[in-house]
C-alpha cells in the first residue's frame, strides 16, 4: 500500500463576489480532483486545536498526524533545523522576513507594503541577510539566510516572552506601529528591525531592484519565536517510511525532525512560478524508491490568499490539477493499491488575507475500495456529507487505516 497526501496550503476560503459568490474551490476547473471525489469520500477536519494560532506550522503538524499541543514549540525552530542550524536547549529562534515598508521617516509610521520583499530571489536575499549579519551578528545574535524572503535569527540565551510579535502577512497594507511589540524583552529585536531599514534601503541589491521597477526588500521583520522542538519520528507513530516534498523551509524542518526524507526540487519556489511537475515527479520517485508515504506540500494557493490575488488563487488550484495530479496518478498505477488524500491545512480567505481556524474540506480516494462520493469537492459538499474529524491526528489514523 502506498499513501499520498497532496496539501494545497490555504486553499479553503469563503464566497467571493468577484467569483460570482463562489469560493476559489468552487470556481476552479479541477476535473482530476473532482473525479477522485466522485469515487472517494469527503468531509471536514479541524486542523487547528482550540486556543492555538492557525499558522501553517500548527496546521501541517496536525495534518501529518501530530498533536500540536504536545509537539509545537514555535515556527522558526522548524525552519532553522531545515537550513542546518544546530540549536541548543537555551537558544530561541525567530523567523526573519525580508519585507517592503513604505518610506515615512518614522519607522512606526511605515506601512507593510509587501511581506515577501517584492518576491525577492534567494540569491539577492542572501546578500541582504549577510549585510544584516555583518552589522548585528554577535555571540548573542546570529542571522541565517534561507529561501526567498524567509530567513532565521538565532538568539542565544533568549526568551520567548516577547509580547505579540505579529506575522507580517497579517498586516498587509497596514501601518506597522500598533503591531510592534511593546515588551521590554523584545526591545533589542525591535531596535534591530528599525536599524535594518537604514542598512537595507540603500543596499546595492535594493538600488538595482528599484531601477528594474521591483520593490525593495528594505527591512527585516522578526516573528514566530520558538525553542528547540522534540518531534516523535513519523515512522514510530505510524510505521511508515515517509517523504515531504516542499519548497518551504518550515515543511522541510518538520520533515527532518520527523525522520522523513526532504528531497530538494530544482525550481520549487512556493508560488505560481514553482516547478509543479518536478514536485510531482519527485514524489513518484520517492515511492518507487521504497517510501510508503509522501506528502506533497504546495504553497501557491496560500501565497495567493495572503496577497488577495483572487484569480491567481483559482489558477493555483487549476495548475495543481493540470500539472501535479496527472503525474502522481500515472506513477501510482504500477502499485497494487494506494490511497490519496487531498486537502488544505487551513483556510486563507481572500477577504482577510490571513489564516483562519475554520475546519477544512478533505477528500480520500482508495484505489481498491471505491465509494459513492461527491460530484465536486468544495467546502460546501464536504460539509454536507456529515463526515467530520476533530483533529488532524484522527484524520491521519482514518487515512492510514
Write the layout of secondary structure elements.
Layout lengths: L1 E7 L15 H4 L3 H8 L2 E5 L10 H8 L4 H4 L3 H8 L8 E11 L10 E3 L7 H15 L4 E7 L2 E7 L30 H14 L3 H8 L7 E9 L6 H5 L3 E4 L3 H9 L18 H13 L4 E6 L1 H7 L3 H14 L1 H8 L5 E6 L16 E7 L12 H6 L3 E2 L2 H9 L1
Parallel strand pairs: 1-9, 1-10, 2-12, 8-9
Antiparallel strand pairs: 2-11, 3-4, 3-6, 3-7, 5-6, 10-11
Neighbour order of strands in the largest sheet: 8-9-1-10-11-2-12
Biggest sheet statistics:
7 strands, mixed
Helix run count: 16
CATH superfamily of the largest domain: Alkaline Phosphatase, subunit A
* Secondary-structure element pattern, one letter each: EHHEHHHEEHEEHHEHEHHEHHHEEHEH
CATH topology label of the largest domain: Alkaline Phosphatase, subunit A
Average pLDDT number: 96
Number of domains: 2
The total count of strands amounts to 12
CATH architecture identity of the largest domain? 3-Layer(aba) Sandwich
Proportion of helical residues: 25-40%
CATH C-level name of the largest domain:
Alpha Beta
Structure class: alpha/beta
Q: Strand percentage, roughly?
A: 15-25%
Radius of gyration: 21 Å
Shape: globular
Low-confidence stretches: none
The rounded distance between the terminal residues' Cα atoms is 11 Å
